[in-house]
Structure formats: C-alpha cells, structure tokens
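From the methods appendix. Each design record in this collection lists the tokenized structure first, followed by the designed amino acid sequence. Records were kept in a plain field format so they could be parsed without special tools. The example shown here is representative of the layout used throughout.

RECORD:
FOLD TOKENS (394 positions):
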C-alpha cells in the first residue's frame, strides 16, 4: 500500500490523535463556561491559538478558528468584499487556478455586482507580480492568490505580490492551505492581510482550520450566534480538533527542514523516473513546487482509468483535485496552464508523504509505467497517434 494523495488529505499524526483523545477525555468543558472545567477548555483553546499564531508569525488575536480551509477562504473573501463595497470598490483579482472554495465564492460575488478578474497562469504554473500589477485598478478591493497550488504544487511569489498590494492599498488574501506546515510561511515576511489554513492537510484532524486576519481589518461573520472567536465566528469551538491541529502544526514545522529535504529528494527521483515514459510531461515548474508534489500528463490515456488501475496495485493517487474527480471535465488547473483537453485528461497527481522511501518511489515509477503502457495498448487515441492520424502534443 502506498498512500500518494497527501494533497487531498493526510493521515493524522500520532501526536495529533493523542492530543485529541486527551482533550476529549480530560477537557470536555465548554470554553465559554465560567466554572473551572469550562475555563480549562478555554486554556487549551487559547494555548492552541498562541501556538498556531506563533508558527505563522501572527498575534493570537489575529487567529480565528474555522471548520477548515473552505470556510476560512469564504470568510476572508466576504470580509474584503464588504470592506470594498463600503468604499465603492467592487473589483477583485484572483487566478484561474484557485481552489473552488475561492472560485465559487468569487462567482457568487460576481452575481452580486462585483467584477472579478481571474489572471491566466503561465505555462509553468506561476502568476507573476507584473500580472497582478497590470490588473490592479482604482476600485480593486482585494487580491486573492493561493500560496501553492493544490494540483500542480507550484509556489507563487506571495511576498512580492503582497508588497505590491500594500503599496497600492489593496487587501491581500492567500489560500495557504497547501503551504502551511509544508514550507515556511510567515504573515509578516509574506506581506499578507489574510491567510487560510486547514488542519487535515498537515496531519491534523478534518473539519478544522484557521483564518489569519491582520489586526484592524473589520471581519465579516459567516455564522451568527454566540460571541465565540471574539464574536466573529459563532458556535462552540471544536476544542479537541483545534488542540490537535495546533499539535500537528507545531510538530510539522519543528522538523520542516529535515522532512522537506528528504521528500524533495524522493520527489525528484519520482520525476526523473516518470519522465522516462514516452510522450509524458510534468505539469508546473519542476523546481518551484511543493516538496511533495508530482503531477504529470501522459498522452493517449484517461486519468480516471489510470487511477483505478493504480488502486488495484494498492496505490492511492489523484488525477486532479478530489472535488472534480467523478466529473468528466478535465482539471481547471491544467486548462489554466494551457494544457489542451485531450492531454489534460491524462493527468496524474502523486503527492508524497514525509515518510516515503526510495523503494516506494521505485514501486510508484514501475506501476505507473506498467499501467500507462497497458492503457495505451487499447486506447483508440493512442492508436491514431502512433499511426500518424493525429499529431503528438507531448
Ligand atoms: C484542501 C484545500 C482547501 C479546502 O480545505 P478544507 O479544510 O478541506 O475545507 C482549500 N484550498 C486548498 C488549496 C486546498 O488544498
């Protein structure tokens, strides 16, 4: 069994599981209750807030706990939209390859009269500061650009884009769900006003995440009710989940240098191996990508069939984001970097865990080679390509 879909979700670390169980058993009180048992839960909650804040260079008061990355993205964008609306600014800049939590929130705002500019992404999977500069307008309320892409792993020039936004007085949000816990992230160095993260992408539990909002920015609520999270996110806090998330995050960053170097070496080994498959190509910049991410297109095959056959061999992989699998449309990310439909259909994402070994990488290479050859052996598209009736693109 090789689990190579860590961009979709990760296995909880032992520390995160133990922390969660301990809090469930020992600190079950409601953090809003005034008696001792409640206040103990409150202490656990606030300690988690300090830990999370420290990891990203924020103040604990700038952290709002949410149900995950999607909620954090929604809240950040709605917050900026409401601030913009008051000033008559109804233009938002983002990219064509954001997560759907961002894209669908923007689509909703578009229906409400906002103008949305989705920047094209270059072939290497990166958006440049110049792209953002050219799109900025007097009425731009927000720039929201993901830190690292969830499908192709490419890392964006967040700090430079943030600097530009600050010079122009425009709010800057980044969906850092794939970055936090995997590469160094610091809200000050990165010049961000708002940042989203999700626990289950860094070996914490599912259904919990956080939003960083820089001090002084008036936050809009998505959920009304009690005064939890300083009145900005109602509902009794998921104390066990939040404590486990903080434990997982601290653990991940404490060994970041070590793990990212070793994962990167395995990633490169995997890339070299997959390159040997004829008529294949890596998606996104080969170097400037998450240490764990490998994404390839293989001409003449269907990514979905590739996945099912790899699953038969005990390998869990993805053809794109989990949210789009099951639909026949090719990945919006691959289309955004300019892959044509036929090629985008034959995609494979392998996102490695920190504990991946060279032997497992070699097994991945061998299995992918076998399955690609097998699928091509009865693919009508491949037959046409080989017969010269169609031209190879890759
Ligand atoms: C997973 C993911 C999300 C959504 O996070 P959830 O906690 O699952 O809601 C948002 N953005 C990116 C880039 C992601 O990878």
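DESIGN:
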């Amino acid at each position: 069994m090789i689990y190579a879909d860590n961009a979709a979700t990760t296995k909880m670390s032992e520390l995160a599981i133990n922390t969660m169980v301990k809090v469930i058993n020992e600190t079950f009180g409601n953090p809003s209750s005034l008696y001792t048992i409640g206040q103990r839960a409150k202490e656990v909650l606030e300690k988690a807030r300090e830990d999370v804040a420290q990891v990203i260079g924020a103040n604990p008061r700038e952290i709002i706990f949410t149900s995950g990355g999607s909620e954090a993205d929604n809240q950040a964008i709605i917050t900026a939209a409401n601030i913009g609306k008051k000033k008559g600014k109804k233009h938002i800049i983002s990219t064509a390859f954001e997560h759907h939590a961002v894209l669908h929130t923007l689509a909703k705002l578009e229906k409400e009269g906002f103008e949305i500019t989705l920047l094209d992404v270059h072939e290497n999977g990166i958006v440049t500061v110049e792209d953002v500069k050219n799109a900025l307008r007097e009425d731009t309320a927000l720039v929201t650009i993901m830190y690292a892409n969830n499908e192709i792993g490419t890392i964006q020039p967040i700090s430079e884009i943030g600097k530009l936004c600050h010079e122009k007085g425009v709010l800057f949000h980044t969906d850092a769900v794939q970055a936090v816990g995997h590469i160094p992230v610091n809200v000050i160095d990165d010049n961000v006003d708002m940042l989203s993260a999700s626990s289950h992408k860094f070996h914490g539990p599912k259904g919990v995440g956080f939003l960083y909002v820089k001090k002084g920015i008036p936050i809009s609520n998505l959920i009304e009710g009690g005064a939890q999270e300083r009145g900005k996110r109602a509902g009794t806090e998921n104390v066990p989940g939040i404590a486990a998330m903080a434990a997982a995050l601290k653990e991940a960053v404490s060994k970041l240098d070590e793990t990212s170097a070793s994962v990167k070496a395995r990633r490169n080994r995997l890339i070299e191996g997959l390159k040997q498959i004829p008529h294949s190509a890596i998606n996104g910049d080969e170097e400037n990508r998450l240490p764990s991410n490998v994404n390839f297109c293989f001409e003449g095959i269907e990514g979905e069939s590739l996945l099912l056959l790899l699953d038969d061999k005990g390998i869990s992989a993805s053809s794109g984001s989990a949210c789009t699998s099951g639909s026949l449309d090719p990945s919006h990310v691959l289309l955004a970097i300019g892959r044509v439909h036929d090629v985008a259909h034959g995609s494979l994402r392998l996102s490695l865990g920190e504990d991946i070994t060279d032997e497992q990488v070699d097994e991945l290479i061998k299995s992918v080679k076998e399955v690609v050859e097998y699928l091509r052996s009865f693919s009508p598209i491949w037959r046409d390509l080989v017969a010269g009736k169609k031209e190879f693109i890759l």
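APPENDIX NOTE: The longest helix spans residues 36-56.
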